[in-house]
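Subject: for your reference before the review

Hello V.,

The reviewers asked for a structural picture of the protein, and I figured it would be easier to keep everything in one thread rather than splitting it across files. Below is the amino acid sequence we used in the manuscript, unchanged from the supplementary table.
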Amino acid sequence: MSHDAASDGAIRTGARMLSVIEVLNEEGGAGVTTVADRLGIAKSTAHAHLQTLHERRYLVKRDGEYRVGLRFLDLGQAARGPWNEDGLIESKVEQLADETEMRAQFLVAEHGEAVYVYRSTGKHSVPTDSRVGVRIPLHAVSAGKAMLAQFPEERVDEVVERHGLAAVTDNTISDRAELDAELERVRERGYARNDEESWEGVRAVGAPVLTPDGEVVGGLSVSGSAHRFRPDEFSDLVMGAANEVELTMKYE
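And here is what came back from the structure prediction:
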């Protein structure tokens, strides 16, 4: 076997191992047969991958099913650490949730998508599936639009070319010209709105968090039920929190 062929085989094996993890995460746990069927591979191959991950303590096995193990929790904490030096952003998210009694969150842009990194719930929070780690189109959430509005045009082009403008709900902006007009409005007022664009019955406002050099760190947002939500009041709180984070990063 040539070196290139061996290298290609190792790459395919690594990619398949990651696919196994993704299947287990989507299924909430699965056995060998389910993994093999989902990936279109032999049961023996699926079993070998599962056993390797189990031996490396990335998976746990209960009642014949494999599940994602807590070793990933350690990796996840490390992944979001750079955005929370001294607990600054996490504390701001909790403060926003307390002040608004809504749900507050901090998202970052990664691979052209918005990723929930921190979130906190107030007593009037609306339950959604926006748990930490979930990815959602940037154009469908207020924090995502707040970030897009600060990106150079070529980066916005890259995001749209890679992911398109999928309509998550009937209210999601799915036309590029409409998105460009919306991003201009975001830049003018300093914050973005989400009018039931990611979940029906849920509205939100979001503001970007920037470095002293103007680079996008992420976006803070507050969301709640459409009938309770007060965008004008909450937008001031969100922009104020984002500004406090920026000032702290600048002078500490």
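For the response letter, the relevant points are probably these. Residues 19 and 28 are 14 Å apart (CA to CA). DSSP finds nine helices and eight strands in the chain.

Happy to draft the paragraph if you're swamped.

O.
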